[in-house]
Structure formats: structure tokens, C-alpha cells
Design brief:
Blueprint: E1 2-6, H1 12-27, E2 31-33, H2 35-38, H3 55-71, E3 75-79, H4 87-98, E4 103-106, H5 121-124, E5 129-131, H6 134-152
Helix pairs in contact: 3-4
């Protein structure tokens, strides 16, 4: 079962959180695509072999690798922490939604003022479920994976 782990990866704390949470999913036997780990270094991208490579070329290749990772996933998890969710995470969740891939949101961050409206409607609409902890995320992935396997029989 392939899991795509979408989440912010812009500082050490976020990257370490992503690694720990992915390790918990991998301990359950899932193959997890974690962009910060699985896209590789920029210097290793195919586009870097081209002459006159531009920033736009690099960004487009990263987008295509991540997009393909989403499309190959059976389940997408989306970490929604921060004042607002990461733009990349939201795009990855939307791609999954448009291809009928379940999206499980993880929000451990409680920086919200409106308790009854913690998400933008467009973000909320692509989520199949929202959980509060990495342990609950693992449980939710297990539940969705079980349903997917049952539906394939």
C-alpha cells in the first residue's frame, strides 16, 4: 500500500516531524513517499543535465515528481499545521481528491481563533477525515487501507 505524505518541509522541526510520522507509517508496513526524502537533491534532478537550466525548469520537475507520487498513492496524508496549511500540501491534497484518492488531514497545531471554523472551506472539502495526532493518523491510514483492500476483493 502506497502512502503519499504531504506536509510543510521548510524548517528542521517540520522535516523531523515528517520523518518521525513517516517512520510510524512505515513501521506498519506502508511504502511512504516523503517528498523531502524521496525527490532527492536538486543536483540529482534530470533537468540538471540540461544546458541553460532555469529555476522554472527545476520547479516544474519537482512538481511533476510530487504529482506522480500523489497519483501513485493509495492514500494521501496532509499535515495542516501552521497559521495556514502549506500551499504545496493543499495542492497535493487537491490532486488526490480529483483522482478519488482518500486524503487524511493531520492537524496538531491549535493556532485558530474561530473554534467552529478551523479550516478554509476549500481545504476542508478535499479531506476525507481529520485527525489530531500522528498516532491517530496511523490508525486512520490503517482503517482506510483495510477498506481499500476489502473493496478490491
Amino acid at each position: 500500500m502506497q502512502i503519499y505524505f504531504a506536509g510543510p518541509l521548510f524548517n528542521q522541526a517540520e522535516r523531523e516531524f515528517n520523518e518521525r510520522t513517516c517512520s510510524a507509517l512505515e513501521a506498519e508496513g506502508y511504502d511512504v513517499f516523503l517528498p523531502q526524502r524521496d525527490v532527492g537533491d536538486i543536483g540529482e534532478l534530470e533537468v540538471m543535465d540540461q544546458e541553460d537550466v532555469t529555476t522554472e525548469d527545476v520547479l516544474q520537475e519537482i512538481f511533476e515528481i510530487d504529482r506522480q507520487g500523489v497519483l501513485e498513492a493509495d492514500i494521501v496524508t496532509a499535515t495542516l499545521d501552521g497559521r495556514v496549511p502549506s500551499e504545496g500540501t493543499v495542492i497535493e491534497a487537491a490532486i488526490a481528491y480529483e483522482h478519488d484518492i482518500p486524503v487524511i488531514g493531520l492537524k496538531t497545531d491549535r493556532r485558530v481563533f474561530a473554534i467552529d471554523e478551523p479550516y478554509n472551506a476549500m481545504v476542508f472539502g478535499v479531506l476525507d477525515e481529520i485527525v489530531d495526532t500522528p498516532a491517530e493518523l496511523v490508525d486512520a491510514v490503517n482503517e482506510y487501507a483495510s477498506r481499500l483492500v476489502s473493496n478490491q476483493k
